[in-house]
Each structure stands twice: as structure tokens, then as C-alpha cells.
Design a protein that fits this description.
The chain is of the alpha/beta class. Helices cover 29% and strands 25% of the residues. A hairpin with a 2-residue loop joins strand 4 (117-128) and strand 5 (131-144). The radius of gyration is 17 Å and the shape is globular.
């Protein structure tokens, strides 16, 4: 069994990663490591933020560490909320606050072509002992729904309809979402890389 620490305290994200990886992996997160202080996302891209978090956590933990940064990019909003997806409506905003702000901004946008086109992007960094071992990326294209639909998932899931589906991520069963999502694609690529490691690497 391969053990991983995810540089997050978001239990939803940790559970999702464990479900994607399956029983071959044991996934923990920073809730079990209070000695690792909060890591601020000060990068200017998903890759920079993922690397920053993975390197900071792995320098303090004797384990393989992964960190991801992910978010929603809406074409009509020039790629917003992007790396600011989690903080789009302010530091203490609820998930519904963020969704309401995005739908409001989209209603005011003056896009001329396919105004609801969007994508979720996820970049995962893998590190150990403060050294970067790899960067993986996953993208899922789709569109923004007109209203909130479904109560599964988290974040912007209830307003994102992945390409090829009519349901939002908030309506799709977890086993379907965890096959097609941006995080699923990045984490599956991570799993392939981890299986290539030799004992003692």
C-alpha cells in the first residue's frame, strides 16, 4: 500500500482523492499534522500554488506529499474565478455566496459567443523531503448551468455541467464524477507515476 499525505485540511477533497485512488493507496491529510502551519496560496497560477503547498508540507513530513490547486475558469469572465475560486466572494464566504457571485457576474457579462463555456482545471504536485517529484494536470470542459442543481460534491459542483452530460456535478453520483472530473484525471495520472516508483526511490 502506498501512503500519501494531502496538503489540505479539506476533508471533502481528501475523501474524493481516496475514492479516486482506491484501496491500493492510503490517503491522509494535514488534519492529522497540526505541526504543519497553514500554507498560503501566494502563487499566480494553479501550478505555482500546488508546488508551494507540496514543497512546504513535504519539508516537514517524512512522507510522500501531494497538493493540488484547482478551480473554475469561465470564458465570459476572462477565466475568472480561476486561482481565486475558493476566495471569489471573500475569505469567509459560504459556497452558496461564491456561486451566487459567479452567476451574478455571468448575468452581467457581455460575452458574444458561448457565454456559459467553462472548465475545471486541477494541477497536482508531488513532493518528498522538500523536493518536487512531478506535476500532473487534469481538465474537464463544460458549461455553467442557469441555476443551482443538486446537492452532491462541493464548491461550484452544483452549477457545472460537464461536456457530454445534462446533469451538474452536484447531480451526478460520486462514482461518475470521480471518473470524469478534473481532479480524477490529475489523480489518475499521479497514480500511474507513483506505481512506477521503485522501492526506496
Amino acid at each position: 500500500m502506498i501512503e500519501l499525505v494531502v496538503a489540505t485540511r479539506n476533508r471533502h477533497k481528501t475523501c474524493e482523492i481516496q475514492q479516486i485512488l482506491g484501496p491500493e493507496f492510503r490517503v491522509r491529510d494535514l488534519r492529522a499534522h497540526p505541526e504543519v502551519s497553514e500554507i498560503h496560496e501566494t502563487g499566480t497560477s494553479f501550478e505555482e500554488n500546488a508546488k508551494l503547498k507540496a514543497l512546504a508540507a513535504s519539508s516537514k513530513l517524512p512522507a510522500l506529499v501531494i497538493a493540488d490547486d484547482s478551480g473554475l475558469e469561465v470564458d465570459a469572465l476572462d477565466g475568472a474565478p480561476g486561482i481565486y475560486s475558493a476566495r471569489y466572494a471573500g475569505a469567509n464566504a459560504t459556497e452558496r455566496d461564491k456561486i451566487d457571485k459567479l452567476l451574478g457576474e455571468l448575468a452581467r457579462a457581455r460575452a458574444t459567443h458561448d457565454p456559459r463555456r467553462a472548465r475545471f482545471r486541477c494541477v497536482v504536485a508531488l513532493a518528498r523531503n522538500g523536493n518536487l517529484l512531478g506535476i500532473l494536470e487534469g481538465i474537464v470542459d463544460g458549461r455553467i448551468a442557469n441555476e443551482v442543481r443538486g446537492d452532491s460534491g462541493f464548491g461550484y459542483d452544483p452549477i457545472f455541467i460537464p461536456e457530454g452530460f445534462e446533469q451538474t456535478f452536484g447531480e451526478l453520483p460520486a462514482e461518475v464524477k470521480n471518473t470524469i472530473s478534473h481532479r480524477a484525471k490529475a489523480i489518475r495520472a499521479l497514480a500511474v507515476k507513483l506505481r512506477q516508483f521503485e522501492p526506496g526511490d
